[in-house]
Amino acid sequence: MHPIVAEVTQRIIERSRPRRRQYLARMEQAARDGAQREVLSCGNLVHGFAASPEADKERLKGYKSPNVAIVTAYNDMLSAHAPYKNYPDQIKTAAASIGATAQVAGGVPAMCDGVTQGQPGMELSLFSRDQIALSTAIALSHNMFDAVTCLGICDKIVPGLLIGALRFAHLPVMFIPAGPMSTGLSNSEKQRVRKQYRAGEVGRDELLEAESKSYHGQGTCTFYGTANSNQMLMEMMGLQLPGSSFLHPQDPVRPLLTAEAVRIVARSTNLSIEYQPLARVVTEKAIVNAVAGLLATGGSTNHTMHLVAIARAAGIELLWDDISELSQAVPLLARIYPNGEADVNQFHAAGGMALIIHQLLDSELVHDDVQTVAGPGLQRYARAPQREGELLSWQPITPQTRDPGIISPPRQPFQASGGIKVLKGNLGQSVIKISAVPEQDWVVEAPAKIFHTQSALEAAFSADELNQDLVAVVRFQGPRANGMPELHKLTPTLAVLQDRGFKVALVTDGRMSGASGKVPAAIHVTPEAGVGGALAKLRDGDLVRLDARAGTLEALVDAAQWQQREAVANDAGEQFGLGRELFAMMRERISSADTGATVFTDL
Description:
Blueprint: H1 3-32, H2 42-49, H3 54-61, E1 67-72, H4 87-96, E2 101-107, H5 113-116, H6 125-140, E3 147-151, H7 157-165, E4 173-175, H8 187-198, H9 204-214, H10 226-236, H11 254-266, H12 278-281, H13 284-297, H14 303-313, H15 320-329, H16 344-349, H17 352-362, E5 371-372, E6 375-376, E7 383-388, E8 391-396, E9 420-425, E10 428-433, E11 443-451, H18 454-462, E12 470-474, H19 479-482, H20 491-499, E13 504-508, E14 521-526, E15 543-547, E16 552-555, H21 559-564, H22 584-589
Parallel strand pairs: 1-2, 1-3, 3-4, 11-12, 12-13, 13-14
Antiparallel strand pairs: 5-6, 7-8, 9-10, 10-14, 11-15, 15-16
Helix pairs in contact: 1-15, 4-11, 6-7, 7-14, 8-9, 8-20, 10-13
């Protein structure tokens, strides 16, 4: 094992020991309670199967046949989740084939950051993760179930489902993906049209046409944002079947994978000698494997929060410093848009997750001695699924990249360090995704231009007030201030300034998402301005230095003057409209970005 990976893993284990011990004791107690339906009264049980087919009723009356919960994020507005419409029937059929039953236990919200980007509704996006966790708990609280299948793909949905499921980790849990849409207009061409529109060179009709050609059918968006990073993480953690992340929804292997997932999870209950609860899968080593996958592929910065919150729900304490230290050991092995030209379909064709996992295992950068839903050992995920008639098998892969421009040979990585770094300094600590940023832009030192909303920055751009070297500071965008919306809408604006030859960077206590592009962005700054963090002390014209090489973020202001400065107050007013007022209690309770930006602070 690489010494840094081994050291960080051991540090996480030691740090987590008291909380993890308590968590596992609770899960073991829940498992000792036996098959969950045994504790229900006759009235309880009948209410649980009154609408079921007669054959299912007979099975559910006894306690020998497993009953599989389906927790679904299906809706037909989200392209990624639309394929899930028929999955419950497929799951029920697969369960019945082995004498088990399956029921839709409940649905969870599934909002799309693509729809809400730059809109007031984006202020509910991060909160939706913890809302999804609560909805998952409600679905499973009926105590009717011996195993769980989770149908979810996109940004906050997978983390929310997993956080909720981890409170029922005495049960086996299987995530079942649906795959990406087919390749449309290239991501680079889409970005080119967006920048043209922002510069006033094309109109809305041309922009809408380009966007329509990019996002055009069922499946996840094909760039490597948070949704596809979620799928990568589920494989790295052994929570969905090997090779299932990036097959198209209509791929002939897809229904076989879904059916096999159901059969495996139904055979993994405490009614079986093959008992494999979620608590045995999500361990400290699995969390480290997830971080390694995130770094090696240049995945979404959102996971610097989601992984911390997921780990906490499993009694594990993951810190940003752990991620930063692992980044010194784990190289960048993949170039997928926005840190390259390829989309996830091309990444999959170049070798995909199986090849990445093979390379990480071969370089001793991940732990093989883990439990997964597919069985013991992460090496099971260095294989690819194949259909042979109506049968499914996994075959060894050719351990060489099919496209060295997308997946590098392990000894010739695209970058020696991972795609995500932590910055520290007198402005606090923050996260930067450097995998998409050219090295000549890793250091920016320029005057600050202060904004309290992204619309104010866009207005300044439209008024030609930003034609200079600058560090754009968009503050009061943290979890406590307004729910920490993504500011990805600013990417074309700042990229236009960069293309004009100016040195440009963004500093914010908000989010930038997995779609962070070529503009260096210090995001998730904590403490946030809304709680008196140092960002609130900045003034227009202050010199700011963002240095991704040295790992620093500094206001270059005289130390005595800086000490005496008072923080300005948030002038955004209260959040009303589109339901934001309903989430005031979450804004009051939510933790800082570096502790997972979660309301579940007592876990």
